[in-house]
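Sequence in, structure out.
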Amino acid sequence: MQEISFQFLKQLVEAPSPSGFEQPVQKIVREQMMKFVDEVKTDVHGNVIGIRNPRGSPRLMLAGHCDEIGFMIRYIDKDGFIFFSSIGGIDAHIVPGKRVRIHTRNGPVLGVVGKKPIHIMEREERKKVVKLSEQWIDIGVKDKKEAEKLVSVGDPITFTEGLERLQGELVSSRGFDDKMGTFVVCEVLREIVDKPLEAAVFAASTVQEEVGLRGARTAAYFINPQVGIAVDVGVASDFPEVDKKKEGEIRIGEGAILYRGANINPKVAELLMTIAQEENIPYQLSGEAKATPTDANVIQISRAGVAAGLVSVPLRYLHTPVEVLSLRDLENVVKLLSTFVQRLNGKMSFIPGE
């Protein structure tokens, strides 16, 4: 991966973007998109949409959501300890003992998540997951009055972990789900910047996916695409204790995940697979028998219907501060989608059976 692209990825994943508070990331995205498109629009929800060749055909929507899981301050007690709720799906197992940042109007405030120590827990307590409501954040103040000078009810919170290299092409960070998708969408725009296109390309960095696919729903209504591809992460199953009979076999470093199933237009799926085979781009297949929990879900059923597709990057340890992916997989997804964009033309029909 080029150093400039790696630095952009690092900038994205380390900027805070809990659902509903995506503005820092979307500012970065907007500045990046403006280098490669004819126009950039931002809607009332905060979706950022880069538009290239707007009069082309068909109208294509590429969507990667930029929001990450996080927390929100709900209550500050008399001693200045902060109680919080989750934004998105958080595994309560992993939260105690973590460093967090509270994002305030005046900048970030560092805190640590505390709970009753094991030394004073009853035997039965040790066997249970500590509920989020029984954990708290300590920012090092003496009382509520001092805490309220620094933070406020409603402030969003993220884990502190940033992008780190592991071995080979593997990297770890919080927020790959799915700031990685926004990264891919922007990199596709970079790849096609000087390429002739027949399709109209609307590349969207969508918001609030983790709390109900909300941004993609309104962005798809605005764009009114004929074809829509969501770019997200997919659950890798190449680590211990995963039942592949239930989850399928998906491995990091072995290419994009392509899908077949009810949420996927069969002609879009076939074109993606054909391109991957012709261009020697590695891919893996996943069968999804119902609607996927991704932006592809709401894109497909927008207005009178959209020929939807889903392309994912394999990811280990989703919704933790140490998500792991392969940079090579990222590059291959960018190559696949850049070629897909260039292959589209107005004569194509995506109606099944035609």
